[in-house]
Predict the structure of DMT family transporter.
Amino acid sequence: MDKTTSGWISGFIGVVIFSGSLPATRLAVMQFDPVFLTVARAAIAGILALALLLVFQQKRPEKSDLVSLSIVAGGVVLGFPLLTALALQHVTSAHSIVFIGLLPLATAIFGVLRGGERPKPAFWIFSLLGSAAVAGFALAQGLAASPQGDLLMLAAVIVCGLGYAEGAKLSRTIGGWQVISWALVLSLPIMLAVSAVYLPASFSGIGAPAWLGLAYVSLFSMLIGFVFWYRGLALGGIAAVGQLQLLQPFFGLALAAWLLHEPVSWMMLVVTVAVIACVAGARRFAR
């Protein structure tokens, strides 16, 4: 198996794992404070990451890597989880998942700015078409219904795209699972401190679905998914493999309908099919 194919397979596995993030967050945020959920998931994942680094005796990152690790931590450890948790107080997970269709474009842009990639002009056409379909969906739904939720999701997409591209660039030198692990460890002291501040007075009223949501976003969304995702981006190319995120709404909508019994409109399905169709064209012209 060549490096590019291996990267696409790893990236696909990462996307499948990430597809459960917003439904799981929706379950958890119904009973957990969004700030506590954000820092708790990062703290749990950070403790696990620290254990992995110690067990496998990984070398500490160079001082020159700390800026990049800080960007990764700010984008995917703090920024995206917090912004999506806040957004899900105003919109359903099915509505928010479609915004994830904007992530490939954001990732590709930061792949050019931070990763030095240069996709062909036709790539941008397909990437823009997918993003336009998502933006059109949001406008058709009526941004006035929940402008705060939609703006929070857009902000989440921007910081996440930066975190993806920065982490992928760093993965080329220190490894994919090491990048997310060190980013989690770097933010661990702050996450533990804030977790203590926002710790609920009692957990007696927290149901099993919320606990399962917290477990999923802590273990899979925050750690395991990134092991595959950063490896995929590093091997297959940030802009190219990043287009796999166009598949994430499809898996996420299915999970939202199945697990949360949220309505999935025909328009959501049409938009999802449209953005999925764009991934084939974007992949062809990514390099």
Remarks:
- The chain has one domain: 3-284.
